[in-house]
Design goal:
The complex is a heterodimer of chains A (about 200) and B (about 240).
Chain A (H helix, E strand, L loop, with lengths): L9 H11 L6 H13 L2 H17 L1 E2 L6 E2 L5 H4 L4 E8 L2 H10 L4 E5 L17 H8 L6 E4 L5 H14 L5 E4 L15 H9 L7
Parallel strand pairs in A: 3-4, 3-5, 5-6
Antiparallel strand pairs in A: 1-2
Helix pairs in contact in A: 1-2
Chain B lengths: L3 E14 L3 E8 L3 E7 L18 E7 L5 E10 L8 H17 L7 H16 L5 H12 L21 E5 L4 E4 L6 E2 L2 H11 L3 H5 L5 H18 L5 H6 L4
Parallel strand pairs in B: 3-5
Antiparallel strand pairs in B: 1-2, 1-4, 2-3, 4-5, 6-7, 6-8
The chains are: A alpha/beta (about 200), B alpha+beta (about 240).
The complex binds zinc ion (2 copies).
The site of one zinc ion has 8 residues of chain A, from helix 4.
Chain lengths: ~200, ~240
Amino acid sequence: MSFGSSHYTPAMQSLIDEFGKLPGIGPKSAQRIAFHLLKLPAEDVGRLAQSITHAKATVRFCERCFNIAADVLCPICADDRRDSTMICVVEESRDIVAIERTGEFKGRYHVLLGAMNPLEGIGPEQLKIRELVARLGPEAVEEVILCTNPNTEGEVTAMYLARMLSPLGLRVTRIASGLPVGGDLEYADELTLGRALEGRRTLET
Amino acid sequence: MSELYRDVGVVLRTYKLREADRIVVLHTEANGKVRAVAKGVRKTKSKFGARLEPMSHVRVLLYRGRELDIVSQAESVEPLTPMLSSLDRATLGMAAVEAVDQLSIEGEPDPRLYKMLVGVLRSIAEQPSALTIPAFYWKLLAAAGLSPVLDACVHCGESGTEVSLVAFDTNEGGTVCRACRSGVGISQGAITVMEEILGGRLREALSREESPLTHEVAALATRSLEHHVERRLRAVAMFEVHGT
Ligand SMILES: [Zn+2]
Ligand SMILES: [Zn+2]
């Protein structure tokens, strides 16, 4: 797949190249976005450029949990009412948003900023694992809940963390994975259905 | 353009694509390496569920596309559950698919490679062993026509009981005598284990407990396969850092 670079002006080519580096954007999409931007009024493009620069300048990672923060600490780490004995470990900040929406969890979080993927060269050193271990003592953590994604990378990461954390004498748990509410049983794959059976619960009557 | 075809294969790796899709790379029985888009696979309600995760053994229905094929249906041939039942199994499974990813080629059917991969994943699921992956690597090399020479010196050709083979030369793919010494040192025990692996006594090799000997054979296997594919294999080493 090649888009002869000679077809574009250098400015256009460099714009397409930059978009092409973004996650999930292939050369074709990069081209489409670049052309779309050129059609927009100058003030719209200016606003977009400004929000990117502004976000980059003001948004940062929480020093403690690596959640998105506007300050040294994110709002959750800064909130004294949160239970510091429980840490929920997630892959990305957006997972915190999803868990917070449930209103079920009152502890704190730790964002790994990814998951282990040996084939991509992402190992323990590339994730915020050392930083997690460093929090356990000072924050008197009693339970670590592993909330990585229920896919191969997430499972491997969870098993790695479990092996590492269990000898430290704290409770290490993994979120149950099972059938999505609203899905049909017959479409469930074997792994999901097996996990759902493992994590079954008694019905209150 | 939208020709439909069926195949069986093992998922080697996946890449995120757009919001909820993934590119799935498989080594299939009849079509060699296949790169296909699985639409909506990352949504929790996806019809594909966990069937298109790395190490999954699946029967697939695909549309042939110009650049990437499209997965229309996928059903499990074997459950992925055992592979994710322990860190050791997952690590070994990753190492197996990583090696096959290096050897599998688009548009070049290699049913033997498919059979070997399915076999090694099954063996990991049933009974992971210290030598499962090293044995797999040696078998891959042998299948590529690169069986190591273990009963003579690859430099001078000297063989027999009076010659002592003291080193292994990865570049030459075999043992070396004391006089020609090159490469890395090799013990007589390691030569014996490699003969077991390549000489039809795999079961004996796999029943060996983890020891300095199995580590020696493992290191040689990794080095030799890396030499063949001309790049580093990362899966095995990644989990060794934390050796408790
Ligand atoms: Zn925080
Ligand atoms: Zn010699």
